[in-house]
Automatic annotation (TrEMBL):
Its EC number is 4.1.99.22. S-adenosyl-L-methionine binds at residues 29, 69, 120, 191. Binds 2 [4Fe-4S] clusters. Binds 1 [4Fe-4S] cluster coordinated with 3 cysteines and an exchangeable S-adenosyl-L-methionine and 1 [4Fe-4S] cluster coordinated with 3 cysteines and the GTP-derived substrate. Residues 7-231 form the Radical SAM core domain. The gene is moaA. Its cofactor is [4Fe-4S] cluster. This is GTP 3',8-cyclase. Keywords: 4Fe-4S, GTP-binding, Iron, Iron-sulfur, Lyase, Metal-binding, Molybdenum cofactor biosynthesis, Nucleotide-binding, S-adenosyl-L-methionine. GO terms for molecular function: GTP 3',8'-cyclase activity. It comes from the Bacteria. Pathway: Cofactor biosynthesis; molybdopterin biosynthesis. GTP binds at residues 16, 65, 96, 157, 259-261.
């Protein structure tokens, strides 16, 4: 069987696919001035996506996460989900969303075939949420999570970017929220990008500060599944929910990397903070191009480096996280 393996022996069962670089939120850590330049109308078509995922599935990819920008801004979002869901070998179709109109639309997402949802909730305080995102939509998102549970979802992952001056003191509120709900709350270290250096310097807080608080309170680290994302999870016997920490500045963060990325324009990103993407789009035009596409993906993978260089302040070609879905 074909499979994706790099020169360090790492395998890649997980693909993050951006379907647009357009976002309608103005999060202070990503797009504080809103989404200016974008290529929304030039995004991969549904047929191009089908050919792309078919090739990756033949290479052993089992899990696809649909990202953006905000992926649900694509009017074909549900068609994209159902198309990917039907590809042999794909076991899980997940999505990451800012939660816009989630309470109204989550039922259609699940009917299309979404298996798992990550939604951003950077603060449980309505005013704080609006300050961070530029939108007064916290209750809409919380209602969407409740609606998901009513529709039979077994759990949610909720992302919160850890920021010194905005939510670093809200751990007790988050823990109280997940005590009786099957929610995995993932604190993500603020990452430096090409255009947020001042904000990063002011707001960055190491995820280890949260880890130490958890361990002191009886939380226990759990093993990570082979197709799981980058979060290290912790559980507590008195809580239904879990806590996840994504700490890209940890020295060993890249050791067990298991995911690749493709941008909305069809470029393979070997790392979130790589210098460049490698174009695949010319081989997404006809079904007969599959062998050549598979060969190109395998060849590009051999260029993947052992780690990123964030700890040195090097962010590669990533100007904002909305470019390729974080």
């Amino acid at each position: 069987m074909l499979r994706l393996q790099d020169n360090l022996g790492r395998t890649f069962p997980y693909l993050r696919l951006s379907i647009t670089d357009l976002c309608n939120f103005r999060c202070n850590y990503c797009l504080p001035d809103g989404c200016g330049e974008h290529h929304h109308k030039q995004s991969l078509t549904v047929d191009e996506i089908r050919r792309l995922i078919s090739a990756f599935a033949r290479l052993g990819v089992e899990k696809v996460r649909i990202t953006g920008g905000e992926p649900t801004l694509r009017h074909e979002f549900n068609d994209i989900v159902s198309t990917i869901k039907q590809i042999p070998g794909i076991q899980t179709v997940a999505m990451t969303t800012n939660g816009y109109r989630m309470d109204e639309r989550i039922e259609s997402w699940l009917e299309a075939g979404v298996d798992a949802i990550n939604v951003s909730v950077d603060s449980l305080d309505a005013r704080g949420f609006q300050t961070i995102t530029g939108h007064n939509r916290l209750q809409e998102i919380l209602n969407g999570i409740d609606r998901g549970f009513q529709l039979g979802m077994s759990g949610f992952k909720v992302n919160a970017v850890l920021m010194r001056g905005h939510n670093a003191d809200q751990l007790p509120d988050f823990l109280n929220w997940i005590k009786d709900q099957p929610i995995t709350l993932r604190f993500i270290e603020l990452m430096q990008t090409g255009d947020n250096q001042d904000f990063f310097n002011q707001q960055h807080l190491a995820g280890n500060t949260v880890r130490d608080q958890l361990l002191e309170s009886g939380w226990v680290r759990v093993a990570r599944h082979k197709s799981a994302g980058p979060a290290q999870e912790y559980y507590h016997p008195q809580y239904r929910g879990r806590i996840g920490l994504i700490t890209p500045y940890s020295p060993d963060f890249c050791d067990d990397c298991n995911r690749l990325r493709v941008t909305s324009l069809g470029k393979l990103q070997l790392c979130l903070f790589g210098d460049q993407g490698y174009d695949l789009r010319d081989l997404l035009q006809y079904d007969q191009q599959q062998p050549e596409l598979i060969n190109r993906i395998q060849n590009f993978l051999q260029l993947k480096q052992g780690k990123h260089f964030l700890q040195n302040g090097y962010t590669g070609g990533t100007a904002t996280l909305a470019q390729i879905g974080g």
